[in-house]
Specification:
alpha/beta; Aspartate Aminotransferase, domain 1; Aspartate Aminotransferase, domain 2; 2 domains; seven-stranded mixed beta sheet
Length: 378
């Protein structure tokens, strides 16, 4: 029986979520902007989901802007600020050196439009170098800083609040990519003290094609997509009602089951890490960080290429990742691990295991056994 250990890439659709979506998949195909009764029913469903997602992160429902995915949310945050009123004075954007490609590439694309863009260095465990951030904030006016709450590869959790204090003290806005964090650890927008926050449905057992950007009331954002008044004019286009409803249901379940899911995942992660470290030839990335996502462990077996090991594990029935699914197939070592100071050969050895609700201790033991068989036979 194949074992899926790649839940940071995507999760399966929860049957309860699918059940919530069914009336909007098989019933009247109403546009939520239509004024007739079917349109009003669709609108009510969209607004109920908006409230459910808002409750997951502690924001106001009106601050939720629907998007198609975390990538769009991140692009809307960075480009929407850079194209906004702040750009008249010359926009400047900083982002974490280990951030997701959806942030990095969105930021770097702005450089061709005259926006000053620069990464912020991290330490050996992938934590933002606070002193470097303060220096960069002090050198020239900064419009926006983007930092991810939890890294999708290593699982390292950033301590956002003290960074937010410095960002705001220097007059900049803060965007937090919480796509991997929400549903795995508590995400409270007030505690994070950020101005924009990205979320995604398919990371928390919801459908693909639904996500959100939280835009606090004081933030002046420009739209990327025009063609309608939907989403406060920030994202024109007909809403994907069924997917949005599913996102809302997934958010409600994630909030209710957060502690149980985290305990289950952390027990599996600790079992795996104990087994790996007993080998003596394994490096765990970000293992010295104070906090990591309870479900995530990234490691390398010395002398092994990550993609070769991934394919050997796949043949034995274990689905894992060598890093970010968005960068798979590039042949390049993880930018996350390079930023943390690892050499290219070490970075190319990376394997990421990310647990979900359906995984078991027996599967962890089977994975360790398969890994031992592969590396011993080489």
């Amino acid at each position: 029986m194949p074992v899926y250990l790649d839940h940071n890439a995507t999760t399966h659709l929860d049957p309860r979520v699918f059940e919530s979506m069914q009336p909007y998949l098989s019933g009247p195909a109403a546009n939520a902007s239509s004024l007739h009764r079917y349109g009003r029913i669709a609108r009510d469903a969209v607004e109920q989901a908006r409230l459910q997602v808002a409750q997951l992160v502690g924001c106001e429902a009106r601050e939720i802007i629907w998007t198609s995915g975390g990538t769009e949310s991140n692009n809307l945050a960075l480009k929407g600020i850079a194209d906004g009123p702040a750009s008249a004075a010359g926009a400047s954007v900083l982002y974490g050196a280990t951030d997701h490609p959806a942030v990095m590439e969105a930021a770097e694309s702005l450089a061709g439009r005259g926006v000053r863009v620069a990464p912020v260095a991290v330490d050996a465990d992938g934590l933002i170098d606070a002193a470097a951030l303060v220096t960069q904030l002090s050198l020239a006016p900064v419009t926006l800083v983007s930092i991810m709450r939890a890294n999708n590869e290593t699982g390292v959790i950033q301590d956002i609040a003290p960074l937010a204090l410095q960002v705001h003290r220097h007059g900049a806005l803060l965007h937090v990519d919480a796509v991997q964090a929400a549903g795995k650890i508590g995400v409270d927008i007030a505690a994070l003290d950020c101005d924009l926050l990205s979320l995604s449905s398919h990371k928390i057992y919801g459908p693909k094609g639904a996500a959100a950007l939280v835009v606090r009331g004081h933030v002046d954002l420009s739209a990327l997509q025009h063609g309608g008044a939907q989403e406060r004019g920030l994202r024109g286009g007909t809403e994907n009602v069924a997917a949005i409803v599913g996102f809302g249901a997934a958010a409600e379940l994630a909030m209710a089951e957060l502690d149980a899911r985290a305990r289950h995942a952390q027990a599996l992660r600790e079992r795996l890490q104990s087994g790996l470290q007993a080998r003596g030839d394994v490096l765990v990335f970000g293992g010295g960080a104070p906090r990591r996502l309870p479900n995530t462990l990234q490691f390398a077996v010395r002398g092994w290429d990550g993609e070769a090991l991934l394919m050997a594990l796949d043949r034995k029935g274990f689905a894992v990742s060598s890093g970010s699914a968005c960068a798979s197939g590039s042949g390049e070592p993880s930018h996350v691990l390079l930023a943390m100071g690892h050499d290219r050969d070490t970075a190319k050895g990376a394997i990421r295991v990310s647990f979900g609700r359906s995984n078991t201790a027996d599967q962890v033991d089977g994975f360790l056994q398969a890994l031992q068989q592969i590396t011993r036979s080489a």
